[in-house]
Design brief:
Elements lengths: L1 H46 L3 H14 L3
């Protein structure tokens, strides 16, 4: 019985660790994505002559960029 209780406690702890790890990785992914989006938009702004060109280029990037 004591072994079962320890296993249950460990399973609960592992679940909590996984949840914290997932949350941290999502925050990191959002931060990196935001930086990449900002950098690529800034780069596009420097090379596009009009707002319409910028929109077209951003759509192309959105559909061709691998996640």
């Amino acid at each position: 019985m004591a072994v079962d209780g320890v296993e249950e406690d460990n399973e609960e702890i592992v679940t909590e660790i996984k949840a914290v790890h997932f949350e941290a990785s999502m925050k990191y992914a959002r931060r990196v994505s935001a930086k990449l989006i900002f950098a690529s938009t800034r780069h596009l702004l420097e090379h596009c002559s009009s707002l319409e060109d910028l929109v077209v280029e951003m759509k192309i990037k959105a559909f061709t960029t691998k996640v």
